[in-house]
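Here we describe the complex-level prediction in full. Unlike the single-chain runs in Section 2.1, the two entities below were treated as one system.
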Amino acid sequence: MEILLAIMIGVLYAAGIYMILRRSLVKLILGIIILGNGANLLIFLLGRVVKGSPPIIPADSDVFQSVYADPVPQALILTAIVISFGLQSFAIILVKRAYKVVKTDDLDEMNAIDKDS
Amino acid sequence: MLIAILLGFIFSLFLVITGKFFKGKFSILAAGVPLALFIYFTQFISRISNGEVITQFHSWIPAFGVNLGFTLDGLSLLFSLMITGIGFLVFVYTSAYLKGHKYLDRFYGYLSMFMAAMLGLVLSDNLISLFVFWELTSITSFFLIGFNNTSRESRKSALIALAITGIGGLSLLVGALFLGSITGTYSIAEMLTMNPEIASNPYYILIVLLIFGAAFTKSAQFPFHFWLPGAMKAPTPVSTYLHSATMVKAGIYLLMRLTPVLGDHEFWNTTLIIVGAVTMVYSAIHTLFRTDLKGVLAYSTISALGILVFLIGQGTVEALTAAAVFVIVHALYKATLFLVTGIIDHQTGTRDTTVLRGLRKVLLPVAIAGFLAALSSAGIPPTIGFIGKELTYESTFHFGNMAILLMGLIVITKILLLYAGFVAGIKPFTGVLPERFENTKMPSFLMWLPPVLLALGCIVFGIFPGLIEGSLVKPMVSSMGLDGKEIHLKLFHGFNIILLLSVITIAAGTVLYFMIEPTKKRENWVAKFEKISPQTVITNSWTNFIKFSNGWTNLFQNGYLRNYVSTIMIFLIALTGYSLFSKANFAVDFNSFSPITVYEAATSVVMLIAIGYTVFTRSRLAAVASMGIIGYAICILFVIYSAPDLAMTQFSIDTLTVILFVLVLYKLPKYLKLSDYKMRIRDGILSLAFGTIITLLILEVLAEPKSSEVSDYYAANAYILAHGKNVVNVILVDFRGSDTMIEISVLAIAAIGVFALLKLRLKKSDQR
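The structure predicted for the assembly as a whole is:
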């Protein structure tokens, strides 16, 4: 399965980069989100994946008795998901505002600072 | 002594609040600062002349050997007196010269900061603190030269001066670090005994070159001289103070101060003599071609600085005595001439020597001052200039086998300087007064008194050289490491070849003055050679450098996000790809991987389709929806691989993002097809290459063993220490609780930002 996941991560990265390279602001944000998902999966996979044994200590014992999924990457990813939501929501609203002011969604047209250029 | 040095800085800070007071009627009071300092330093004269050296020590950064150590000996005393004495006169003069100027307080602030920096420079015993003060003089002089900041020329000159002297400052720092590492100390006093060790060090030549780099840029030696004529754009008090008496002498001071440390070596002497000689002759010739009074004075100042370097290069007792006297001579007459020029400019509105005539009828005291200063600059008895010139000739005459050649050069220079002095000090006042200047008014006495006082100094010290002999000149020579007992300053040395040369100089110079009128024609003629002057060469190379860096920067920093991203990607692919293919062995063990079940395969297929749809769809809404599907697919992967917390978070956040997107999106226009086919192909190749690199990298990393120390610690202690069974939760809220806390604040800030952007009401003018 790992090989499949590795390929999926590669595809997510490629798609993310491709979207970031587009001129549309909305695509840029979509690209960042996809890239973020790819990064999350990357961390997850590099922490090694295990099926059916979540990092929760059994009710009847104080420590793990058998194999368990690595909790550290999970904690990291959880943080990453929440933080990226903060970034995404801000970016989405910013795009909305920017569109309202400059009436364009094209990054190249936003380059100039002055209104009349 | 520390207070004395800092007083100027303190005063300039004080001016920030009381600026209004000093801007108005009471501006003359600002002169109290240099006056107090001058009086403070005069009380040391008797102690210093008895051979005492006053030192003071304040620890600053002892770990690096950088301390605020101050030494007051003959050398620093003379410079301190010049800085504060001429400073006082310049402060007084300024109060009338810039009367009612909008930024007079600012001017005083810069001036007193400059004075403080200059005092710190000449009193520092520690090379590093000397460097700090050196840089401070460069920076404050930048503000003073560019004081008329609305003039483009003025700003440009200030920048050139800062660049040239700034480079010199860096050179000084490196030289000081070398000296420090050889001697193990930054204290000049401690280095005095180490001359032989330094001279035999393999880095000796390099150190001397670095110190020369500093001294020659600051003291405007050829080929770095050109910033000084440019700096004449500054108001005349600045030219007087910085560019005749003090700052340009800082390089001379440095050479004098380091003579006992680095001097008495063939390389030191020869270089200084050559550079000094070239500078003094080159710029003395230049004075023939100038019609602007300040231009004449600027070039004659450079020439005088050349003479000083030339004398320091000779390094004998006679030569250093001559240098010591000439520093005083030059400060007195050049400051006078600058102040006189300032008055002429202020009262008549021009500095053009071709039109200024007969001003003695309207500006008599100024004319007297100019006349006396011109005599001193010409070296005509009984002025102190005569004594200076005699000493210069004598020491050069006694200088070994090259004496005849050097003698010729110095005599030519002196003849030309006499011409320059006469043009600046006498010419504007003689002849018939033209009609246009008939109504010229006498300025306030605050303006004409300072030059008159300085000019009187030229005469008084000339008639009574004993006044400065024991008190200033002897201690100064002995602080340059030589025995000054034999020095006797007097006007008349008896009939000898030196006197004959003096007579020839004066006669030839006077003839030159009457034969050659400054004309515009000659000035224009010499302007043709601008193309090959050091100034043009250096400014051109620096404009080209700026052009090059502009081009280079624009190539990479072109303001297009996608170009930045592509550049970063290309380099990332190339570098990672290179090390991946050159080092990795791709020993992927497929057997170690778990088998693929139908759930995983199905999820992956869904995800692949969703990714493809997000990327290629023309509908924005569809792109957002399929992006949501990617998120859900990842969510399912988290469920399969034992990460229930992640799955829940991913699910809720993904849903929220999609909702937010849809809410915003309906207000946006349709997707436009913005990029052409070629660009898409190019970007596609780039992205796929990057994706491939990532996949290969993962496979390579998965083949390596994994360290799980940290995870094991958390897993083992989650319940025992933190009493939680869900290890991920325990990590987030307990072990790394403060991180989570900060994360929450980040979210709060984002929320505030979102709220503000939503609520922001634009003014009509901000909308397109």
